[in-house]
Amino acid sequence: QVQLVQSGAEVKKPGASVKVSCKASGYTFTGYYMHWVRQAPGQGLEWMGWINPNSGGTNYAQKFQGRVTMTRDTSISTAYMELSRLRSDDTAVYYCARDAGHQPRGNFDYWGQGTLVTVSS
Amino acid sequence: DIVMTQTPLSSPVTLGQPASISCRSSQSLVHSDGNTYLSWLQQRPGQPPRLLIYKISNRFSGVPDRFSGSGAGTDFTLKISRVEAEDVGVYYCMQATHLLTFGGGTKVEIK
After folding, report:
1. Which of B6, B92, B100, B101 to mutate to test the interface with A (most CBs of A within 10 A)?
2. How far apart are the first and last CA of chain A?
3. Residue A73 to residue A30: CA distance in whole angstroms
4. What is the 3-state secondary structure (H, E, C) of B26-76?
5. CB contact A27 to B (< 8 Å)
6. Which residues of chain B make contact with A107, given a CB cutoff of 8 A?
7. CA separation, residue A32 to residues A104, B34, B48, B101 (Å)
8. pLDDT digits (tens, 9 = 90+) for A63-72
9. Average pLDDT of span A8-37
């Protein structure tokens, strides 16, 4: 069965970077786009970007351009999201989500369990 | 950037009664390929979101038929024909015509 298992919770200081992983299993990793979505405490959903695990191509939300890097390691079916220059308002649960479609149209059929990133001095 | 505006912010509903959520986009969501990439997601407390509806009105696998979507262009609606206890949560519209953007969410709760 399809599973997306994310890395554990992180606590970071302002200005640091965080790298969250999302290990996929139960399907061909390179066959589906992967998105990253975050949710601040008590707030709504915010799309961060996607990666094409086959080509490595990415597309980021303008808000995160220059601060986010999405990569993948196809040998271990894992996608990564790295966010740099962290601020307190980056405190959120970060989700990876698989796109069921052949294009990244937000057909999120599977989600990771979420990774809480806390930014605090 | 596309702005997605949902109303109401909160919707107290009696069990068995209908509920309706509106979503308006700041630009037309008709893609150059002719499709309109407007989806609805449900997030139950403490869980990741779940896709309910894609391309305005297509129910995702396993979604009960009491959920339906409609609309066109910039105005869209999610309807729950008879609210059940398990429907409590926050509902988000999302556009994927111009990259991706979520609406602010509508909380559905039982009266």
Report:
1. B100
2. 40
3. 10
4. CCCCECCCCCECEEEEEECCCCCCEEEEECCCEECCCCCCCEEEEEECCEE
5. no
6. 39, 51, 54, 60
7. 9, 22, 19, 20
8. 999 999 999 9
9. 98
Residues A47-86 pLDDT 10s? 999 999 999 999 999 999 999 999 999 999 999 999 999 9
Neighbours of B21 (CB within 10 A): 23
* B102 vs A contacts (CB less than 8 Å): 44-47
Residue A29: pLDDT band (50, 70, 90) is very high
Q: Does B66 touch chain A (CB under 8 A)?
A: no
Please give the C-alpha separations between residue B57 and each of B38, B52, B77, B95, in angstroms, as whole numbers.
9, 9, 9, 13
| Chain B CB within 8 Å of residue A58 CB | no
Among A68, A107, A109, A115, pick the best mutation site for testing chain B contact (most B Cβ within 10 A). Answer: A107
Where b means 16+ CB within 10 Å and e means fewer, A35-66 reads bbbbbeeeeebbbbbbbbbeeeeeebbeebee
- Chain B touched by A68 (CB under 8 Å): no
Per DSSP, helices labelled H in A32-118 are none
What distance in Å separates the CA atoms of residue A82 and residue B19, rounded to the nearest whole number? 39
